[in-house]
Amino acid sequence: MYRGKYQTLGGLSLPGGDLRSKNVGNRNLLYFAKRLVALYPNGLPYKIEPLSLTLQERTTIGDQLGDQAMFCACPKADPVTQTLVGYALSNDRRKVKLYEFNTKYVAAEPREEAFAGPMFCDDFGLTEKFAVFFQPPVKLDGGAYGFNKKPLAEACTLDKGGKTKVYLFPRDPAGKRVELEMDPVFVDAVANAYEDREGNIVVDLIYSEDLPWAPGTAAAPAWTRADFSPSGGRALGRLVLPTTGG
To answer: CA-CA distance, 160 to 137, in Å (whole number)?
Structure first.
């Protein structure tokens, strides 16, 4: 939500047509495997010196993430397997890599899955068997963004006539992915996810019926206009998702 996350005017006006977003490392703090890092959506983690709490350089976690990895700010700890599960979007947002780190911060071979179009998400759900992603139906005015006429926030709109896609990616490489659809919403956060006795996935989430960032210009950060009131256009809901499709 800071200047540079979705609000930077860039595109072809910058050297090389730079379409990247800045990473200010301020969304989440994580202590895992005796390391403290600061996280921000779609960027590399930042090391934090634990005694002084000084923000240090970015980290690729032992070269396991690429130099330009769009890592998530909301990895999930699995208390059963003692692993940390996170994801990184590809630069075009059409693919995702799922990482599972052990207590020494060593990841198993990352799994790659594909989305039906660019993905805009800030969180995901994790259960014993699945990683759960919600893809809102977003329209992007690529010309206006690429030619520096609009920042990313203003170039995106939620397609009210579309459907939010739900992806259930199996954590077991031998498992099968499941795709579902629901009414067009943007999922702001996933509060909880688990599998019930019938094998369905139950997800508690916070969602909006529009995109959460407020339109604006590159000169002013989105949080100066965003509605953070108790209502704020957001709602808490529970979904029960079948793992057999439908």
So the answer is: 8
Q: Show the CA angle centred on residue 218, arms to residues 68 and 59, nearest 5°.
A: 20
CA atoms of 51 and 48, how far apart (whole Å): 9
Least confident span in 27-31, 78-82, 202-206, 212-216: 212-216
Q: What is the pLDDT of residues 194-246, one digit of tens each?
A: 999 999 999 999 998 887 665 544 455 555 655 656 555 788 999 999 998 65
Domain range for 180: 120-223+230-245
Alpha helices in the chain, H assignment, sequence order: 142-146, 152-155
Q: What's the domain count of the chain? A: 1
Question: Which residue is it, tokens 């199996």?
Answer: 170
Q: What is d(CA 217, CA 152) in angstroms, rounded to the nearest whole number?
A: 10
- What span, in angstroms and rounded, lies between the C-alpha atoms of 113 and 2? 29
pTM recorded for the entire structure: 0.81
One-letter amino acid of 153 = A
